């Protein structure tokens, strides 16, 4: 007849230890957690990708502002960096989300779509604002600041939705960076955005990746 030990496991007459229901549940939960960590991309990957993009964009436009490179070259550099990061982010998201469904997946999809939709509409708004006769130098400061401020608001929203303190604080910080970039003006404003916003994203990305690898 089997005896129950103090560890919550059952010991047979031959001395073998059989896992209890609690032990089995713990093993299953550990396996599920390990599988989820392998199948779900770390948010640190996306932080890092876009952090690099922000830094690159900020640097090339700062260099354009001090006449080191041409605005055309900065424009092309910005376009290439944004497209490459968008494609890479989409590929990572699609590959890791394949075969997964449910309310949380739909929620993530809707939130993800809110980024391109809001950015495109903001672009229309900025274009309309520029056509009202606002000086070009003013628009060169206000336009990027509005995009950065919107990105910060979306990050803060994601923090509220998924109760992520990192996202919430990051969103507030990015909005502060947007305000500061408007206050300092050209030619330093792109550098403030690139190093302040992009640097924060890189910090959050490296931190998230380091914590994930330590599990």
UniProtKB/TrEMBL annotation:
The chain crosses the membrane at residues 44-64, 76-97, 109-129, 141-161, 168-186, 192-210. This is Uncharacterized protein. It comes from the Bacteria. Keywords: Membrane, Transmembrane, Transmembrane helix. The lineage of its organism: Bacteria, Bacillati, Actinomycetota, Actinomycetes, Pseudonocardiales. It comes from Pseudonocardia benzenivorans.
